[in-house]
Write a structure and sequence with these properties.
The protein is an alpha/beta fold. The chain has helices at residues 2-17, 23-41, 73-88, 108-114, 125-135, 139-146, 149-152, 155-163; strands at 51-55, 58-65, 93-99, 120-123. The protein is elongated, with a radius of gyration of 21 Å.
């Protein structure tokens, strides 16, 4: 709610006031924006993403996904709306999606996000390369040298994951 009030009060209202329209039209337009932002900020649409940080005066807003291989229409629409909101802020924001699965293993909803111009999409190994760009640390190399998930877990847990076709979730 604070974000909604701040944005309407400090960003939208002053710009609406500059418009060459009647006071009644000013009031109506402000009311319409308050309604829209109230809906966005009500919790009906979740604006949360998994990671937010600032680097070199750019805000990065990142969402992590396992993949897009089922009916993801609602989530895709939410993500498009979320990116639209972040990209309307005065400070520079970049919205990124990091997807565990290879791009070819995802459906058209991932392509919708990728082609929207609102999201930068990185899949599988691309995620590690982008992470290294941000951190300067080659996490992919470190993981290859230090981790072997299938060997590091108990045989019982590995059998459970295999039985329910969940071993694929050990790779990122």
């Amino acid at each position: 709610l604070f974000f909604c009030l701040f944005y309407v009060t400090n960003v939208l209202s002053p710009n609406i006031d500059k418009l060459n329209i009647s006071e009644e039209e000013h009031s109506t337009l402000k009311s319409m924006f308050e309604s829209i932002w109230g809906y966005v900020d009500s919790g009906a649409i979740n604006l949360n993403l998994d990671l937010h940080f600032k680097q070199n005066d750019i805000y990065y807003d990142i969402d992590y996904k396992s993949g897009f291989s089922s009916n993801e229409k609602g989530n895709t629409n939410r993500l498009l709306m979320v990116a639209s909101v972040y990209n309307q802020l005065e400070s520079e924001h970049k919205t990124l999606i990091f997807v565990r699965q290879e791009e070819a293993d995802n459906n058209h909803y991932l392509q919708t996000l990728k082609n929207s111009g609102l999201w930068e999409v990185y899949c599988a190994g691309e995620v590690y390369k982008k992470t290294e760009e941000f951190t300067g640390f080659n996490i992919a190399k470190w993981m290859i040298e230090n981790m072997d998930w299938e060997s590091d877990i108990t045989p019982e847990f590995r059998d459970y994951l295999q039985t329910y076709d969940l071993l694929k979730y050990l790779t990122w």
